[in-house]
Amino acid sequence: MLEIKNLVVNIEDKRILNGLSLTVNDGEVAAIMGPNGSGKSTLSYVIAGKEDYEVLDGEILLDGENILEMEADARAAAGIFLAFQYPLEIPGVGTMTFLKAAMNAQRKTRGEEELTTPDFMRQVFAAADKLEINREMLKRALNVGFSGGEKKRMEILQMALLSPRFCVLDETDSGLDIDALRIVSEGVNALRAQNRSFLVITHYQRLLNHIVPDTVHVMAQGRVVKSGGKELALELEASGYAEYRANEAA
């Protein structure tokens, strides 16, 4: 599915990722944990194709194809999806208008016909109901005036409608109360499939109680320094990141 080889990334002449390597297999949910400043969010942005990051070395292969050679929109069309830690508000752009444009753009790249309005409405309403998204939210500008939990549900709604191959969740649990965390997690779990993989970036075990990972990787100093099963997250919850911060200071 996704293979990252020796990825070296700078931003504003500062080294953020330092020879990072990681493999996420088909159908796998991989969690990335680590102290602040270890490069977790940078990794998510580089995978998605955000500008301003200078890739000095390495590859990111999606099904064997190096996506670093693609623009961000081409990566999205290939099946990459990023759920942001802080989803953007877009005043003046209606939520339904945005969703329809995104879905039809994806269909166009696949050589498929655009959705009719009735088919589009049925798909959106069915997915929104599962995420307990109020129909009134769908009538508003995208994310404008939404609570943190509502913004995260809207991200998962987009993910459900676009059906990506590889989903990156950048601290999706940030700002969620218990109920919102449950709803968002249930939405993610409903999308788990053999032909879809997830990279879940989080600081805390609480998200991984709901989205149980197959593998857990610890990042420090811009690379993966330890990997294991889901029990590794429990170890980190108990001991914290002091060991990895000490290594960074060494």
UniProtKB/TrEMBL annotation:
Residues 2-246 form the ABC transporter domain. InterPro entries: AAA+_ATPase, ABC_transporter-like_ATP-bd, ABC_transporter-like_CS, FeS-cluster_ATPase_SufC, P-loop_NTPase. The keyword Hydrolase does not apply. The keyword NAD does not apply. GO terms for molecular function: ATP binding; ATP hydrolysis activity. Keywords: ATP-binding, Nucleotide-binding. Pfam families: ABC_tran. Gene3D superfamilies: P-loop containing nucleotide triphosphate hydrolases. Belongs to the ABC transporter superfamily. Ycf16 family. This is Cysteine desulfurase. It comes from Methylobacterium aquaticum. The lineage of its organism: Bacteria, Pseudomonadati, Pseudomonadota, Alphaproteobacteria, Hyphomicrobiales. The gene is sufC.
